[in-house]
């Protein structure tokens, strides 16, 4: 093993080793942040991702230097964070966030050429569930321009911290007059906006309706 | 200069060099993701942050090994991302996200001891505007346990990409029957939840009311 230790060094009581909790987090947000090392310096970039079984999948242009570096075997650290609320304590010191934070370490690999369509469809459907079935197939030119990469989620290459509690104030503060509680935070989807070049008469598709909470269309 | 180039290598038409756009992004979200290199491997962690003028400020426990590594001069790359929507194109290939993505490179430094309270208050007020004025002062013990670090935002150590447009489909697809548009995404705050140990009769404070969009209390 050449990956860093996944032992959480701080606030270890918040660490969980339950794989289903990891999957819940990975399936709840499309945004990952990827770090790698180039010429001894840290490089970082955000990207959409999907969990596909035991793999974390990203994609980018075949012309992207960071994607190529990852494809060529650069060690990566991938952070996925869900910010679930502000913990409003009775002091600045105890104030914090409710969050779920996962890090997956390892080396990405290119997906097999024969499975490229499968992985790209899974990515599209992770961002907009059901969208692939509504779309034309990818062209050969599109596939050739796209680099999907996968990182295996093993037993020993990830860590997860979950902070979901309440303010943990000392008794003196609890006896005082300051308010304490939690302000929940969540990502919400707004009503869909039509593209300026959308032809008249094309209804919002089922996938977008489902994502934005609207009723299914009658069709 | 030992920081990596801030020239965006891909989709350079999305790059902006306007400092006010950077500040807007940094002021719109409390979450940063920090990468550094330890023993040749990439390390990554999420953390709350605040922009204080020309500085990006984070804090953590004096016992945190990553915070200590940063305080000791480790090169850092800090990513701040706003996910603003899903660009629903007429193909999987053209589908993407509306986002604002900043990276700031450099070396953090400890804030001067005399300014520790100032920086910590700015952090608290960045997460919950106005909260500091409602709270008791930090104790010496709390201050001693907290390590605030700052990273200067200079002219040449950050990059910003903004993708705020519409699907950019080829004519053949525009002439077809697929829907295209944008599903806006935003972070929303829910109604505040009282801590289980909150004494009766303590009202939700102004700071929390303002954050969650409620009317100011009468007091």
Coarse structural class of chain A:
alpha+beta
Tally the structural domains of chain A: 1
* Shape designation of chain A: globular
Radius of gyration of chain A: 21 Å
Give the CATH superfamily of chain A.
Answer: Electron Transport, Fmn-binding Protein, Chain A
The end-to-end distance of chain A, rounded to whole angstroms, is 54 Å
CATH fold naming of chain A: Pnp Oxidase, Chain A
What is the overall pLDDT average of chain A? 92
Describe the structure.
2 copies of one chain form a homodimer. The first copy, chain A, has 219 residues and is of the alpha+beta class. The first copy, chain A, has a single domain, classed as Pnp Oxidase, Chain A, CATH 2.30.110.10. Chain A is 20% helix and 36% strand. In chain A, strands 1, 2, 3, 4, 5, 6, 7, 8 and 9 form a 9-stranded antiparallel sheet that branches. In chain A, a hairpin with a 2-residue loop joins strand 2 (41-52) and strand 3 (55-61). At the A-B interface, strand 1, strand 2, strand 4, strand 5 and helix 3 of A face strand 1, strand 2, strand 4, strand 5 and helix 3 of B.
């Amino acid at each position: 093993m050449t990956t860093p230790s996944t032992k959480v060094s701080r606030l270890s009581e918040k660490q969980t080793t339950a794989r289903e909790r990891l999957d819940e987090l990975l399936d709840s947000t499309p945004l990952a942040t990827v770090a790698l090392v180039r010429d001894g310096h840290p490089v970082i970039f955000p990207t959409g991702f999907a969990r596909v079984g035991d793999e974390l999948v990203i994609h980018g242009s075949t012309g992207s230097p960071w994607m190529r570096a990852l494809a060529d075997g650069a060690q990566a650290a991938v952070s996925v964070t869900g910010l679930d609320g502000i913990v409003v304590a009775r002091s600045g010191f105890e104030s914090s966030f409710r969050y779920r934070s996962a890090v997956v370490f390892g080396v990405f690999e290119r997906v097999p050429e024969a499975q490229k369509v499968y992985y790209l469809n899974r990515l599209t459907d992770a961002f907009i569930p059901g969208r692939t079935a509504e779309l034309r197939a990818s062209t050969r030119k599109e596939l050739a321009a796209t680099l999907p990469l996968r990182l295996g989620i093993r037993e020993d290459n990830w860590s997860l911290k979950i902070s979901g509690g309440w303010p943990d104030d000392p008794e003196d503060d609890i006896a005082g007059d300051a308010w304490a509680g939690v302000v929940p935070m969540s990502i919400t989807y707004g009503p869909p906006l039509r593209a300026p070049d959308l032809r008249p008469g094309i209804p919002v598709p089922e996938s977008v309706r489902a994502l934005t909470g609207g009723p299914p269309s009658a069709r």
